[in-house]
Amino acid sequence: MAPYFSLSKKTNNIKIQNMKIILNILTHGDEKIGLKVAKEIEKLNINKNILSVQIANKKAFEIHKRFIDQDLNRSFPGKKFGNHEQKLAYKLLPIIKSADIVIDIHSTTSNLKNTLIVEKFNKKTIKYIKVIQPKYVLVMNATKNNALISQAKIGIAFEYGKDNNPNTLKKIVADIKKLFKHLGLINIRISKRKNTTKYFNVFSKVHKPKEYKLLKKIKNYKLIYKGETFARRGNKYLIAEEDFYPILFGEKNYKDYFGFRGKKII
Description:
Blueprint: E1 4-6, H1 14-17, E2 21-25, H2 33-42, E3 51-55, H3 58-62, H4 84-98, E4 101-106, E5 115-118, H5 123-132, E6 136-140, E7 155-159, H6 166-183, E8 198-207, E9 213-214, E10 229-233, E11 236-239, E12 245-247, E13 257-264
Parallel strand pairs: 2-3, 2-4, 4-7, 5-6, 6-8
Antiparallel strand pairs: 1-3, 5-7, 8-13, 9-10, 10-11, 12-13
Helix pairs in contact: 2-6
């Protein structure tokens, strides 16, 4: 079983008492912001039967690596007799499936900020997104069924910024509190700041040929037009075959692809 530490407080609402939420951290062992988020959420003293914090890849964290054998967030549903991450995904699978909501905490080395990632774009998920009001939502079809949140009834990943940025921590915690207040888990005053959320369908990877580098003009969420150059190697260029929005471009942990292609939904 995955390591847990739990939060505790009594609640009287029967519907809430039957709810199970997992705050998942360290899917990637080098994304330590999840530990800080968990520490802040622990202060809310939410009933341990409702909210549990799951340390996903403890072994990778302990040796200061992103993963041991392969990316855990590309390893689901896992294998009983596979490598470390495949076996870990296999063990985590029933835990994730048993929860009503899974909140997965991430950081990024790209310039991406204030972004929620989901795979199931159903009514309940959309409702929770509207409560949180992030700047961006990515419906991640490019990694469908392999990511941790893909196995959840409702899975929401927070990709709010860089790992050691205090503003990233502050915004993640504030937006989790919005959700928890909506669910009736906490009773605190929340500032009513309304954001306009932009939604993107993320449908494929943009592969990176050896030694090609992005052009400086390329920015996440800034449309790349069909026929536009976006990367080069010496006097050789990569040209877009279709219009697309670059998503998670500049992430240092992506070795053989630049990031993802997206299309605006809303």
